[in-house]
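Field guide to reading this record: the first block holds the primary sequence, the second block holds the structure written as discrete tokens, and the final block holds curator observations. Each block starts with its own label. This record concerns VWA domain-containing protein, catalogued under organism Gordonia asplenii.

BLOCK 1 — SEQUENCE
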Amino acid sequence: MRIVHTGRRVGALIAAVLLVALTSVLWSATAHADSDDAGVNRFGACLAANKSGQVLFLMDESYSLHDTDPQAARVTASKYLAEQLQTFAADTGAKIDVAVSSFAQDYTELKGWQELSSSSIGSITDTLATLKTRNTGQDTDYLTALSGAQKTLAARKPANGASGCQLIAWFTDGSMDFNVDNRQGPKTKDYAPGVELNGPADVAKVTAAATKGICRSGGVADQLRSSGVITIGIGLQSTAGDSSTFDLMKSIATGQQTSTGSCGDITSPTPGSFYPVSNIDDLLFAFDKLSTPGQPPITSEAGACVKTVCEKGKHKFVLDTSVGSVSILASADREGLVPVLVAPNGSETRMTSAGSSDVAGVTVGYRNPSSKTVAVRMTNRDAPGWSGVWALVYIAPDGAAAAQTRSSIHITGDLLPSWPGKATTKLHSGDTSVGMTFAVTTTDGKAVDAAAIPGKAALSAQLVTAAGKTIPITSTDLDKSQITQKQTVSLAGVAPGNATLRMTLKVTTAPARDRTGTMVAGTVLSPQNVDLPVTVSAPVGYPQLGSSIDFGRLDGAGSLTGALAITGPGCVWMNSSTPAKILASPVDNPTVTSGSDAKSNCVKVADGQTGQLPLTLSVPGEANGTVNGKVSIMVAPTDGSAAPVAVDVPFTASLSKKLDVERAIGAFVIALILGPLIPLLLLYLVKWLSSRIPAKALRSEQIRVQVNGSTVLRDGAPFALRDNDLVRMVPGLDAPARRLDLGGVALKVHLGLAPFGTGFVVASASGAAGAAGKTGDTHGTTPDAKLPLAVHNSWFILHDPNGPADAATVVVLAGADATATVRARIESEINSTLPRILGELRAKAAPGQPNSSGGPGDQPNPFGTGPSAPPPTNPFAGGAPSADPFGHTQVRPGSGQTQYGQPPQGRPQYGQPQYGQPQPGRYPPGPQQGGPNPFGPSGQQGGQQPRNPFER
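BLOCK 2 — STRUCTURE
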């Protein structure tokens, strides 16, 4: 099991805690779980019992993230959560499937369901990494997001129709909102027919319609809750933000009433949890809450030590052999502090950067998710140095001790409470003496001698009926010596139906002495809860029923047939006097009927035989969503020796709107017309998707040179790269790119005419011709330099064909990990091949120049100096990337694009605004980047003398 110690920072960090009571609990040193973690705990208890579940990452991609999350902290935190869940799955033996979706004005599935494992975690975190650039959406549409999430989860629910263990990790940076300024795409929403988003009044109407769709009785919130889906909301806001911004989200996730009112009718069990956060560290701790579902945190706080380890700064925890592994997330409230792990033998491991250590046989790995946070993983409980008192400490090397620290220490044991008789013991309504014996097992099901647990252990059990009634099975917590003793429970008065056997195991590690000889109490682990689904059957002699009914999927209005499994002996019929209870539905008044609706036409099943009760679900209208409810079924002995008994059986069905036939026919006709072109278009599409500059850190340098015969000169001396060259990082390569801005020089990907092969990169600058280094490859009539897609560790030249024949600019592109050998190779190529390439380039460019005579009808000569020539310009001041060949572009700060994929027209000249500056009247404003060429004749930037990145 895992527990969490989370210390407190003052002020804004309180926003990292969960909901209302969490502010007083998360920062306190207590062994009790947060009540506001109820949603996460439910998911964990379900996982512990069923050993499988699904987590859907539902991530906001609206434009406001440019301001609220400019460093993509949501990506760092979500990747951390995925990695921690994978570790949790490996530690506990649970099978956890993960999917990733995003939302703004639409809902997009980015990654389908995939089981978390060491082999799949990379592809999942890679998908989450793409969210860095997914921040251009117009709306924050909660209804579209949750409706899409509902469909994604429904596709993965258990085949038998039973509720599974499903959780939505829902992240957003704002309240539900809709854009009207220069809106791109549809101005209407399906759920608000007749309303166009043209102004504030329209936004209010659409917001009200969306809120109603989610929160009405039986709406999307109730549909998710009645399907067993747990919703965890994480809201990112500034510390100065309006605290009511996320009230609707909070109400959706938790069922609590807020300033926006109530949301949904189903509030028990607790639907989920809500976490308000304000920065990267809060976000990491909020996501960390989800990383050990069902094992809530023990919280603590500490100060910092000055230069050396001290007692006041220690976050202590005690390990013994009942603990399988330890994961730690710790943070300080300011930068510059050093996290230190102190082992029982007194050895100190300083964790200033990512690495690993062997501490008396214990494997300790660590990394830094943020500048103030450290994540630690400890394994090998069989090591001689494992058991004893450990501590995590933050040290202030500068002598300033005024700091607060917090830690989240997950101590993972592999002990679970269990009921060995679950496969052999039948629970019957009315039975007054049901014997039940409990045990302790490891996560892989192996029995453990409870009495031999090193520290303390106590087990409790209770039965929770579908109506919420709790029936104690153990009157008190059973000590580890009593756990296997037989318990007796009475089911008198308990109605037949589905129920939950809730078992709780509390463990405290054995106490240990620290290096000073002081006895330190064992660590109280968070209770390990297991919620085991069970069925309370009808009394002995009555027929037994299946646990649920799944009607399947219905397109449009109409009806669906389903069947309820029966095991004899007995007589079964639907209770026609009690209409089906609808818990949630996207349409009004669905009904359930059966041809066997009275005792006289009941379905009779002989002793030991099986049968089915047929039922029909009728849906009067079409909609998208889920119908969940309960139907009353009557059961009785065949011989009539006892009175009939009513059993409530849950049912479910998925609804979707019927296909628009006219649109479908139109699409079919278009497909017939375009059919022959589709294979060719697919080839071009594949080529376009694969033609991108690799996402790898890149440095660039622009250097003026002169050719004297066969010698290349830089500032009058033989050409050489200098120590302060290649320190400027090229922005825009956090993901594969199709265009880059080098400060007045544009790199853009071209496909070429052939549908096969790969694309290439063209380097261009206004008023200059260009050629690739070493090969001299060019493209177009200007011409421009033609480079491979992997532009790293290459170079090219730019030259004014109407300027001095011996002058050029060399542009060097070096990977951030380029070695001194690569640097020497580039330098050698420039010295040996540039004179030849410059001569060839000037010859290619000269014939293509327009006539500069200035006669009537002539166009201005961009390279000439005649009467029609434009004023002299800086040839390296700017360059506009071109749009992709399919008419779509990727918005990237500084890319030169206007909003939503519309490329700017023309190539800017020196003195004009650079691409990436906001354009009046556009929504939303783009980030401001670019500017005149910062490189002077020497190729140095701003006169600075930065460190040589290749220096050894």
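BLOCK 3 — OBSERVATIONS
The CA atoms of residues 12 and 240 lie 9 Å apart.
The two ends are 47 Å apart (CA to CA).
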